[in-house]
What we know:
By secondary structure, the chain is an alpha+beta fold. It has one domain: Aminopeptidase (3-Layer(aba) Sandwich), CATH 3.40.630. Helices cover 32% and strands 30% of the residues. It has six helices and eight strands, in the order αββαααβββαβαββ. The chain has helices spanning 3-13, 32-41, 44-47, 58-71, 120-133, 150-158; strands at residues 17-19, 23-26, 79-86, 94-101, 104-111, 140-146, 162-171, 181-189. Strands 1-2-3-4-5-6-8-7 form an eight-stranded mixed beta sheet, with helices on both faces. The protein is globular. The chain starts with a helix and ends with a strand.
Amino acid sequence: MAVGARDRYLDLVLPPRIETERLQLRAPVGGDAVAIYDRYGRDPEVTRYLSWRTHTHLDDARAYVATVMADWDDAIAPRRTWTITLRDDDTAVGQIGLLSQGHRMQMGYVLMRALWGHGYVPEAARALVGAALSLPQVHRVWAFCDVENLASARVMEKAGMQREGVLRRWAVHPNVSAVPRDVLAYAIVREV
Ligand SMILES: CC(C)(COP(=O)(O)OP(=O)(O)OC[C@H]1O[C@@H](n2cnc3c(N)ncnc32)[C@H](O)[C@@H]1OP(=O)(O)O)[C@@H](O)C(=O)NCCC(=O)NCCS
């Protein structure tokens, strides 16, 4: 399928705006940087197990948002990162993304600390898992988390994924260590 046609197809299933029972997932905009910085980008407890360094200046959040906006329609491997908001307020409270890897899609997510424990990210994750698996070419939605990040492991379980094992020395989580760390891998696959 031509790249342009593929992107239009992705737009149908993974559109810039998705609503769940309590949340809105929408394409990121430059203005999200302020809320991202204030609400979680600079919070070391939130960013501890992420792939990016804790923000120390608003410009870090601006650069991060610029990257995820540019990745939305990447010709080789589009990475769609939605800003999560509550339904009645357009301000960013988190983000959730899917990286397209051929027949696989990889998920990642983050939520501001004040909203942890209400099942918000599992709600968003279930919506994206359903959408991704509705694409006929997608057979696997997967994610990983640091072996110590048990809150994230619970999100994957609540999204219907199964633990597949430990990927040793898989990811650098720079706020913990410069040395690659072991991660827990989870996936949900299309049944044949
Ligand atoms: C992981 C994360 C997305 C969970 O989102 P959430 O919407 O709070 O998810 P849930 O409400 O379903 O809670 C999931 C687990 O988080 C833990 N948790 C809940 N509230 C918590 C709190 N206030 N403090 C610490 N952990 C908490 C619990 O283990 C919970 O599991 P349980 O429901 O079996 O008790 C969120 O904690 C987060 O943004 N963490 C930092 C970023 C991150 O690590 N992202 C994943 C990278 S792989």
